[in-house]
Design a protein that fits this description.
Length: about 325
């Protein structure tokens, strides 16, 4: 196990290097840069632009260097914990993220709990009570959840709350608490607004997880070892929990690899529609304004979490399912 983990960690280094080159290249593909975009916007508004000031800023931010030099400067800074300087906010990236990172992690964590708590019992019930009225009903609701886009569900909830209850459910807190220090009133405001994005973001994930757990569990329940266990008089609960349910949990464990990057990126479209103060809209705006250090650092951090999350899910799957081997070849 230790040998496998060490080898995987060393394999992450060239993987992340290749990803960093791709990320930096893709961000640089659009013509111009942040200063060019800013100058064009000012000129479109009829304002005069001081070219000497633009040249100074270009030199200050290192935009007058070659692409290779900018890439090496960016990578060297990240290796030392410096995620770069945000052009748009005129602050280090670490300071720009601020409370948005904590709010993003909170939304993702609660959403993950919602998905697992809802999908696990429903998936088991649908498999054990196959073709029952409850199975058909839950499957129908699940298909609706899969077919409904998250942003559309968000718009429907916002309309119903405004039309029938006269309340605005956008955002993660009341307006008076934005950019204010954390207090108990601010925490309660966040908790009061949290259920809407959790339900919206978690609906499709819950529906998909239910379908996968049901299909996996049905496949295990029809295998010969389950029939043999029933024939020997093993109780239905032990027959279900001992092996079939354990083997059917693979998709739950495999999804761990996606949880870490989702905590940072979040559901971007839903966050924009609901006006959530998370990192998703910030990343989208950074890409649109070509704020390359802010966008690139976000994407690299998400890639790093994806690589580590995949390793964690692989190790957890090997522990859960004895049929999975970390090494190739046959064991004796």
């Amino acid at each position: 196990m230790l040998k496998y983990v060490v080898r995987r960690v060393f394999m992450m280094i060239p993987t992340l290097l290749v990803i960093s080159v791709l990320v930096f290249t893709i961000i640089q593909l659009p013509p111009g840069d942040y200063l060019t975009t800013m100058v064009n916007e000012l000129q479109a508004q009829g304002e005069n632009v001081n070219q000497e000031r633009v040249a100074y800023l270009r030199e200050q931010y290192g935009m007058d260097r070659s692409i290779v030099e900018q890439y090496l400067y960016w990578v060297w800074g990240m290796l030392h914990g410096d995620m770069g300087h945000s052009f748009e906010h005129d602050k280090p990236v670490n300071e720009v993220v601020g409370d948005r990172m904590y709010l993003t992690i909170l939304v993702a964590f609660v959403t993950t709990l919602f998905v697992y708590v809802m999908s696990f019992p429903i998936g088991v019930y649908s498999a054990v009570r196959q073709y029952s009225i409850g199975d058909f009903t839950l499957s129908f609701i699940g298909f609706i959840g899969l077919a409904t886009p998250n942003f559309l569900l968000a718009l429907i909830l916002m309309y119903m709350a405004k039309a029938y209850f006269g309340t605005d459910i956008g955002g993660l807190m009341d307006a008076q608490y934005i950019d204010q220090p954390w207090t108990m009133d601010k925490v309660m405001s966040v908790l009061a607004h949290l259920w809407v994005p959790v339900v919206v973001i978690g609906t499709s994930g819950t529906a998909g997880m239910i379908r996968r757990l049901r299909a996996n569990l049905l496949d295990e329940l029809h295998k010969q070892y389950v029939v043999t266990a029933k024939a020997k008089g093993l109780s239905p609960v032990k027959t279900l929990v001992k092996y079939p349910l354990r083997m059917a949990l693979n998709p739950f464990i495999a999804d761990i690899g996606n949880l870490l990057p989702e905590m940072i990126s979040g559901a971007v479209i839903v966050s924009v529609v609901l006006g959530l103060e998370t990192t998703g809209p910030m990343l989208l705006k950074a890409l649109q304004s070509q704020d390359m250090y802010l966008a690139g650092s976000f994407l690299m951090f998400i890639s790093l979490l994806t690589v580590f999350g995949t390793l964690i899910s692989d190790l957890a799957l090997a522990v859960l399912d004895p049929r999975i081997r970390l090494e190739g070849g046959q064991s004796r």
